[in-house]
Fold these 2 entries.
Entry 1:
Amino acid sequence: VVYDSIRHPDEVRYLKRHGVIIIGVTAPVEIRYSRVFSRANDTDHVSLETFREQDQLERSGKSSGQSIEACLHLCETIFQNDETEDVLISNLKAYFNTHYAKEAHLPCHD
């Protein structure tokens, strides 16, 4: 199971207590902004400056209790997602195959 957008440390702690392996995936703010902007959803049309401000609030714990940085510190490992999706998936598979001795079957987007 892949959990997306975990932003509160209590969510991470809860999942870990139930045997979930938590892997962090992050990317530089400029790359994330570009990806969000390219989705072209109505809520995604903000300036890079606004995006950075919101990102800082969510990362620091100053946004409704969300603290992405605290969540990342609780992860088993963190992957930098600053290349293609194929590169990320390849890196994740290699990690799981090395650390868990099972062939990884990661989800793909059709």
Note: The longest strand covers residues 23-26.
Entry 2:
Amino acid sequence: ANKWKCNAVGIELDENLVKEADKKVKKLGLNNIEIRNENALDTKDFGKADVICLYILDVGMEVMKPILKGQWSEDVRIVSHGYKFKDWEPVKETVAVDKEGNKHWLYLYEL
């Protein structure tokens, strides 16, 4: 986030993961990242995020679609891990391979 000068909002349901992420953000000095403990599907405000990363099932993505459409500015980008939006075309698709050799599909949307 600091390298590319972007603002980020992390939303996580598991309170322990929120605490862990918040500690790491502070340790790294990432002042432009906000971590929230809430259900992403109930989130009505993504703050001033430049990038929204989704790591939810395809059903959840369809629920998120009207929330995202109502909030984004011209500059916001959406990165989805593992699933595509049904009727939105990603501007870029890529596959990342982790240390164990597992493949992860990533989709970038600029709407």
Note: Residues 17 and 37 are 9 Å apart (CA to CA).
